[in-house]
């Protein structure tokens, strides 16, 4: 696994893990690498500081440990959202606007929004966040 610093067309810088450089290239060409701030699909690698080399076993253990921590954090955040927020599905943008403009009671919601809807919400000043979402495992 490799951690890349990425930058979207709106100059948001963020990090993402990939199996290798080819995996990043493949995923970005398919448009599945999204900026967590604005959902832009126009993402490229940002300049990165060189990594000080550790012994191979130490380096592998450290990166595996950090990845496990990140995955655990994402899983815990997802569970908290599922347990404490109302799922509104593809109506997220509509419901977020209703709450923002006082047409609906304030409540925590989550769901899906297109890149266009996310951009419009941002331009309107509607507070929301884009987060990575792990699909549920089949039972």
Polypeptide structure, described:
- This protein is of the alpha+beta class and 139 residues long.
- Helix content is 41%, strand content 17%.
- The chain has four helices and five strands.
- A three-stranded antiparallel sheet has the order 2-1-3. The protein has a two-stranded parallel sheet with strand order 4-5.
- Helix 3 links the parallel strand 4 and strand 5.
- The chain starts with a strand and ends in a 15-residue tail after the last helix.
Strand and helix layout:
Layout: E1 2-8, E2 13-18, H1 21-29, E3 43-45, H2 56-84, E4 86-89, H3 92-100, E5 109-111, H4 115-124
Parallel strand pairs: 4-5
Antiparallel strand pairs: 1-2, 1-3
Order of helices and strands: EEHEHEHEH
Global Rg = 18 Å
Number of helices: 4
> What spatial order of strands do you see in the largest sheet?
2-1-3
What structural class results from the helix and strand content? alpha+beta
Distance between the termini: 27 Å
- The low-confidence parts are none
Our estimate of the beta-strand percent is: 15-25%
Compute the average pLDDT: 85
Assign an overall shape.
Answer: globular
Helix content: 40-55%
How does the major sheet shape up? 3 strands, antiparallel
- For the secondary structure, the number of strands is 5
């Amino acid at each position: 696994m490799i951690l890349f610093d990425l930058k979207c067309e709106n100059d948001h810088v963020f990090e993402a893990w990939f199996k290798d450089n080819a995996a990043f290239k493949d995923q970005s060409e398919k448009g599945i690498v999204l900026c967590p701030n604005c959902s832009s699909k126009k993402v490229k690698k940002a300049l990165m500081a060189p990594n000080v080399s550790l012994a191979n076993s130490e380096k592998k253990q450290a990166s595996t440990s950090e990845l496990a921590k990140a995955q655990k954090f994402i899983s815990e955040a997802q569970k908290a959202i599922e347990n404490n927020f109302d799922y509104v599905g593809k109506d997220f943008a509509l419901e977020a606007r209703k709450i923002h403009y006082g047409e609906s009671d304030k409540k925590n919601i989550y769901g899906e929004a297109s890149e266009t809807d996310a951009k419009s919400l941002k331009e309107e000043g509607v507070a929301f966040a884009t987060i990575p979402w792990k699909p549920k495992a089949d039972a």
